[in-house]
Design a protein that fits this description.
The protein is an alpha/beta fold. It has a single domain, classed as Rossmann fold (3-Layer(aba) Sandwich), CATH 3.40.50.300. It has 9 helices and 10 strands. The strands form 2 sheets. Strands 6-7-8-3-9-10 form a 6-stranded mixed beta sheet, with helices on both faces.
Length: 252
């Protein structure tokens, strides 16, 4: 685990309630710059709730969250996103009624702070075209640039969503179930894109995932949640071979 001074995000003693039910209890961990951290655990253990709390979609009962040394507890989700905490969801967060290219255009326009009149400028239009083309080439989606996004396969939607996250210039990517609805043939491409986001583009990623093989192959560190509490934490090889993990998933 990175030293506290190296952490881009620190969570201390997080408690989250939904209604009267305590979903997360006394969760603490740090995320180092440039890490890929996996979150696993049985259904209902609080994985997605944890991402919602970190990104500001849920309030804490108790605890502290700091990002780049700044207390973000009083910031709403959109304000945390502006600081660099970006979030994907179990169902791909793209505008399905727009084309693939338009999905990237609105992200680039905001992230690059294009002027309101950019569409009337040949210089800015060329710049936008180049950026969209490069981004789509990176994920093998360029042939689908003018296709309505809702017509993409599940795996292609995930690739588009990850590309939107990269272009948004968020530094900490909270990714929820990236392989959900994805055909096995595209999982390796997803893994490649996530590694590229972190190792080449300088992002940090926290990934909730049910596919343990996918996650163990990509993560630098794994945190296991059970019944809303942190149960295990370590590098993938340690967690994979820990008898306690086998008990969680397969019983005694």
């Amino acid at each position: 685990m990175p030293k506290e001074s190296e952490n881009i995000l620190t969570a201390e003693n997080l408690h989250v309630k939904i209604g009267k039910r305590l979903i997360l209890h006394d969760i603490s961990f740090g995320i180092g710059q440039g890490e890929i951290v996996g979150i696993i655990g049985p259904n209902g253990c609080g994985k997605t709730t944890l991402l919602n709390a970190l990104s500001g979609f849920l309030s804490l009962e108790e605890g502290i969250i700091t990002f780049r040394g700044k207390d973000v507890m009083n910031l709403e989700a959109h304000a945390r996103a502006r600081l660099g905490i970006t979030r994907s969801f179990q169902h791909a967060g793209v505008f399905r009624e727009m084309t693939v290219g338009e999905n990237l255009m609105i992200v680039i326009e905001r992230a690059e702070q294009y002027p309101w009149w950019w569409a009337f400028s040949s210089k800015y239009r060329r710049k936008m075209d180049v950026e969209i083309k490069k981004a789509l080439e990176d994920v093998d989606l360029l042939p689908h640039k003018d296709l309505i996004a809702g017509l993409l396969s599940g795996g292609q939607l995930r690739l588009l969503e990850l590309t939107r996250l990269r272009l948004s210039r968020g530094n900490l990517l909270l990714i929820d179930e990236p392989t959900a609805g994805v055909a096995p043939i595209l999982k390796s491409k997803l893994s490649e894109i996530i590694r590229k986001l972190v190792k080449e583009h300088g992002h940090t990623a926290v990934i909730v995932e049910h596919d343990l093989k996918f996650l163990f192959d990509i993560a630098d560190r794994v945190i296991v949640l059970v019944d809303g509490e942190k149960y295990l934490e370590g590098i993938p090889s340690e967690v994979r071979n820990d008898e306690r993990l086998k008990k969680v998933y397969f019983g005694e």
